[in-house]
Each structure stands twice: as C-alpha cells, then as structure tokens.
C-alpha cells in the first residue's frame, strides 16, 4: 500500500515521504480500515509515540496520522461491535502506525460508526479536536450552565470545537486569538473576542474555566483572571500556574466511541461544524503539510474518492 512515512524527527514535516509499505494485519480486537480520509496534527512529530513503541523501542520509519474515516474491511480475532463494510471514524493508537496510508489496523474500540450523511473528509476532521474539546469541557472541566469560559485559540481546530460546545452548553464564551480570527470566533459562538496581540487580556474580568492550548505566559496571565475555585484545563503540558482553591488539569485526549457518536450527531444536526481549510490527495500530502502560506482550517488527506 501507499503511505506517508517519517524517519527523521529533526526534519519535521519536511522529512515526510510517500512510500510503499506492507499491508497491515488486524490483530486480536483490531479492525483493518480501508482509509478514505485522514487527519494529521503537526504536533505529532514531537510526540514520543511517533518514533518509539510502547516499550520505547525505535519503530521508524513510521506512518503518522491518527484521525481516520473509512470502511472496515477485515476483523481481527475476537473483534466485536463492528462489521465488515461498515463506515467508521475514530482515533488511532499513538504508538502504532497511523492513518496517512491506504489501510490502517487499529483497535475496534477506538472507532465509532460514521453516519451515512457525513462525508469522510468531515469524519476525519473530528476525532482529535472534537474529543479534546468534549473531554476538556465536560469530563475534566465539568462545565456547568451559566459559567464563563475563556477559550484560547478560539478559531483553531480544538478551540473552535470548544467554543461551539461551550456555547451550546449554556456557558458565556470569551475567545482569544489573532486579530484575523475575530470574525470566525464570533461567528461560531464566542460572545466576546480578545486579540492577544493588541487587546488587554486583563479586561476580560473573572472567569470560571480556562481552556488553554498555549501554556507559558498566557496561561499564567489567564489563571490570574479566574474566580476562586475555578478550573484550568490545558493541553500544553503540566500546568505552570494554578487557580486559587481550584483545579489545574492537563490531559491527553483518548478515543471514546460514545463521545465520537455524540459529536457526529451534533454535526449532522448543524449544531457543530468543523473548519476544513484544505483537502489534498495522498500523493500530494507532503506538499500539503509544507504549505507556502498559512492555511486557515484543518488539512485533510482524501486517500480515496
């Protein structure tokens, strides 16, 4: 099969190449998915799991990409809950070969049925951003109706999902980002927007929950705005600051079939939308991940028509 592979961590996305790889086999409790569309997060190339297996052994050349939408074409021994021919989407394991390929073998529990009225490109854009937003707000943040939420990067992949889900849950949403992101953030549901370059973050006032993607100085400044007992949720690594009498939580997103289904249902009903900036073929994936200008929205690789 054709796949995108990486073998040099220092090279970043410039080190990606299109190669022929052996077709993977579905182990016990696995399914083999014929990939129709795949998502990729550039940060993957900094993750240990891209380069080593669970025992810390080098596994390069490896196939990146962890978001997938496709069709189940084989079941491993003992696999239950899915069937051959079923449309699915989900989140592949961090320490196994990923989804920038014509086929991927992955645990069945990491996949959810993809409704027939959702395009594969949409399905592949949802797992990381959608699950990260869902788990950060509702599992770790325990968001309640009427609370105020400060969402950093509100127009980005994760931030746009956080903004929409928080607004729908009855929160007052304050988004942040670049000046060029203001219109998008407000359009998808933010009540207010703060330009982190030109506006004063201190003018936001007190908030109940901060969803942080940056860490560092912005995280520290954000914590100073939090009400006593508030919650900081971050995906930028171990928290560097903590709210007074509150919680500071960092987490790594996990696959969850029920949550994926909730997210897909909201997309079907028009209550949630994903921002796709570019769709490219597998043959053009390397160029797509090394653009000459900034792409607004997620880049999705359409592996098959």
Looking at this protein, list some descriptive labels.
305 residues, 15 strands, 20% helix, globular
Compile the SSE list and pairings:
Blueprint: E1 2-5, E2 17-20, E3 30-39, E4 67-75, E5 87-91, E6 103-107, E7 111-113, H1 120-125, H2 127-140, E8 148-151, H3 157-168, E9 172-177, H4 182-187, E10 192-195, E11 207-212, H5 216-223, E12 226-234, E13 247-250, H6 257-268, E14 276-281, H7 285-288, E15 298-302
Parallel strand pairs: 8-9, 8-11, 9-10, 11-12, 12-13, 14-15
Antiparallel strand pairs: 1-2, 3-4, 3-6, 3-15, 4-5, 5-7
Helix pairs in contact: 2-3
Tell me what the structure shows.
It is a single chain. This protein has 305 residues and is of the alpha/beta class. Helices cover 20% and strands 28% of the residues. It is built from 7 helices and 15 strands. It has helices at residues 120-125, 127-140, 157-168, 182-187, 216-223, 257-268, 285-288; strands at residues 2-5, 17-20, 30-39, 67-75, 87-91, 103-107, 111-113, 148-151, 172-177, 192-195, 207-212, 226-234, 247-250, 276-281, 298-302. Strands 3, 4, 5, 6, 7, 14 and 15 form a 7-stranded mixed sheet that branches. It has a 6-stranded parallel sheet with strand order 10-9-8-11-12-13, with helices on both faces. Helix 2 packs across helix 3. The protein is globular. The two termini are 16 Å apart. The mean pLDDT is 96.
**What pattern of helices and strands is seen along the backbone?**
EEEEEEEHHEHEHEEHEEHEHE
Q: In percent terms, what proportion of residues is strand?
A: 25-35%
Structural shape: globular
**Considering DSSP H and I runs of 4 or more, what fraction of the residues is helical?**
10-25%
Instruction: Characterize the biggest β-sheet.
Output: 7 strands, mixed
Poorly predicted sequence stretches spanning 5 or more consecutive residues: none
Please tally the helical runs, counting DSSP H or I stretches of 4 or more residues. Answer: 7
| Radius of gyration from the alpha-carbon trace, in angstroms | 19 Å
